[in-house]
Amino acid sequence: MGFDISRTISKSIPVTFRKVKFGFSEKNTSKYWHNNSPFVSFFWSAMSTAFPEGELFFMDTGRYFKDEINNPELKATVEEFIRQEAHHTYQHKRLNNMMVEHGFDMHKYENWFGMWLRGVRKVLPKKLQLSVSMALEHFTANFAHQYLANPKYTEGVDTEVKALWSWHAAEEVEHKGVLYDLYYEVGGGYFGRVVTLAPAWTMLIALTLLAQAEMLAKDGKLLNVGDNVKGLWYLVGPTGLVTAMLPEFFRYFKPGFHPWDVNDKELMDSWYRNNGEYITNLKVVA
Ligand SMILES: [Fe+2]
Ligand SMILES: [Fe+2]
Questions:
Q1: Residue 276: pLDDT band by 50, 70, 90 thresholds?
Q2: Per-chain residues with Cβ under 5 A from ion ligand 1
């Protein structure tokens, strides 16, 4: 297909590991940390439980093929990608543990994602596992794009928790092309790429919603109609977060698709301009 790896790498921005720490804690941070909304706070908290197992899976599928990479620039980028994902997991475990302190069984939800991905590891050949990771990275990259591009999705979020999600979002955008480039570098094809998209997104969303519903029930907020309607509007209203991602779902099926077709360089530059100082202050090791 004449896939030119150097062209796609040069379109992206450097993937950079940053070690950070955030000041949220069970004592100082409400369990309703997203705009005082149980529905939306628990939606994001439920999604956070996907990361420990999900990002381990992403890292492993990258590691499977590391020795087959001929392009040294891509090899270094995959290594940096792995360092980023490992640190995301560490920080999200802190958030998950905070919600455990608030009385929720977050480790059970982490395990739901683990069971799903252990099944994927068992059933699918390694290249299709990499394709599942790519599909989920396409999800996180677009979630991240929306999160950073539209301030309305982060209105009223606790400052420290928002810093975690914004940092994670920025790095998801930064490395959105890495597994894609890896997949084509090691000989992946169109069908293997697109076949996993719908099942992977469906499972991620379904398990997240299930965990969210259980958290709402546990908290006695399952029938909190006003907040639930507002939360649904936030997710699937005409300008909702999930609604905004739909065009990206379909664009993935385009034969010549590449994650950097949506050039996020300007978005990232402006994000770093506005948050660079905060991130620099958080930075322990560059
Ligand atoms: Fe991540
Ligand atoms: Fe990622």
A1: low
A2: 85, 88
> 250 lies in which domain range?
34-278
**Could you tell me which of 207, 178, 153 has the C-alpha nearest to residue 61?**
178
Task: Give me ligand 2 centre to Cα 52, in Å.
Answer: 12
Non-local CB neighbours of 147 within 8 Å, separated by 6+ positions: 153, 154, 165, 166, 169, 241
Considering only residues 232 and 267, tell me which one the structure prediction assigns the higher pLDDT: 232
C-alpha of residue 249 to centroid of ligand 1, in Å:
19
Q: Does residue 285 fall inside a structural domain?
A: no
Which CATH number is 155's domain given?
1.20.1260
Query: What's the total number of domains in the chain?
Result: 1
* Weakest-pLDDT range from 4-8, 100-104, 153-157, 186-190: 4-8
pLDDT for 10 equals 60
CA of 85 to the centre of ligand 1 (A): 5
- 140 CA distance to ligand 2 middle (Å): 7
